[in-house]
Amino acid sequence: MGTGMDFSSPSGIIEGSCNKDNISAMENQNLENLENVKQVTNGKPPRHLSASRNCIGSARLIAEANLELDVGIVVHKPSSDEKTEFLPVLRSGSCAEIGPKQYMEDEHICIDNLAECLEATVEFTSPGAFYGVFDGHGGIDAATFIRSNILKFIVEDSHFPICVEKAIKSAFLKADYAFADDSSLDISSGTTALTALIFGRTLIVANAGDCRAVLGRRGKAIEMSKDHKPNCTSEKLRIENLGGVIYDGYLNGQLSVARALGDWHMKGPKGSACPLSAEPELQEADLTEEDEFLIMGCDGLWDVMSSQCAVTIVRKELMIHNDPERCSRELVREALKRNTCDNLTVIVICFSADPPPRIETPQSRFRRSISAEGLNVLKGVLDGNS
Questions:
Q1: How far apart are CA 105 and CA 91, in angstroms?
Q2: Residue closest to 172 by CA, chosen among 138, 149, 197
Q3: Domain ends where: 38, 54, 82?
Q4: What region holds the PPM-type phosphatase domain (predicted)?
């Protein structure tokens, strides 16, 4: 995401001006290109033509052409008076349990209505929401401090809301420094941090550590974050390039994560490059009707359950009772049943007021012995037992 991001645009950033004349010219050109493409008999058309940064009209024409030619699907082209932009209806539920640990060191935050929380002091696209999971270690101080302050650092950053990506990255580092400056806290404690910020239909997930966010898209698991384990190839390379070492999967033989806030006994002076990084990695998605819910959880969940298994469980539960809080409790219960060794914190965020629809499959001349939904359930069970 670059500077000048406009959340009101469903197609991302539009570069250059688009008046009526050049929009018409570009659409005529794209229609000519479409006719040429349809005459090609060998190979598929490029799959990313719709990423051309011209204007919404031309991009939509090419995207529809790609879909029709690629898989033989006729795209419904709405009339001008039809509503085409999806806006999520946000609701969430959470569950946190101490598990087999002696102390509870997790924290989390759920804000379904950001405008109400910020009291209209900041302008942004509605609906807006903020969620976070913070898995503490070495004490609760770091997780509590970051949970209480991270949103403030985001919305008060000079880049917000013009460039939210920069604001979030800056906020993680500012929160880490502010924690180090608080003499009343144990700055040797640390925490991972996973946040999800929603503006309109834009979802931005930021992660530093081994918590994980997983999008449920019509029964399929889409991972929106990467676990920052020291043995992960990219993290291992970064750590070793900065003089760090990994012993038996632990950073400098002490920490089982490669990124965290706090842990100032393992960091150098502020601003210096350090094997233990507080900088988050970000992933962004434009939500559509296909996106049903987001699961956010600490590693106590993912240590014993695959992403697909969790999505399968949540979707099945939502179809029964449509309650995200009961879904989060079910995931925690299942993780405890599978003998997790850690604290457990889970948030389930739904993007619709309605339960997920049953997955319909096209009629086939061959008899099916299992439905598409059944296949997803089976895959989740198999993943969970692997």
A1: 25
A2: 149
A3: 82
A4: 91-351
283/13: higher pLDDT: 283
Question: Tens digit of pLDDT for each residue in 96-108?
Answer: 999 999 999 999 9
Domain match, 64 and 208 both = no
Strand stretches in 298-380, DSSP E: 344-350
Q: Using CA atoms, how far apart are residues 151 and 168, in angstroms rounded to an integer? A: 9
54 and 99 assigned to the same domain: no
N-terminal to C-terminal alpha carbon distance within the chain = 36
Q: What are phi and psi of 211, to 5 degrees?
A: -70, 170
Q: What angle do CA 252, 146, 248 make, to 5 degrees?
A: 20
Mean pLDDT calculated for residue range 215-226: 97
Q: How far is CA 40 from the centre of its chain?
A: 38
- For residue 347, the enclosing domain spans 91-385
The contacts of residue 123 (CB under 8 Å, 6+ apart) are 161
Beta bridge partners of 241: none
Q: Residue 50: pLDDT band by 50, 70, 90 thresholds? A: very low
SS3 171: helix
Backbone angles phi, psi at 214, to 5 degrees: -130, 125
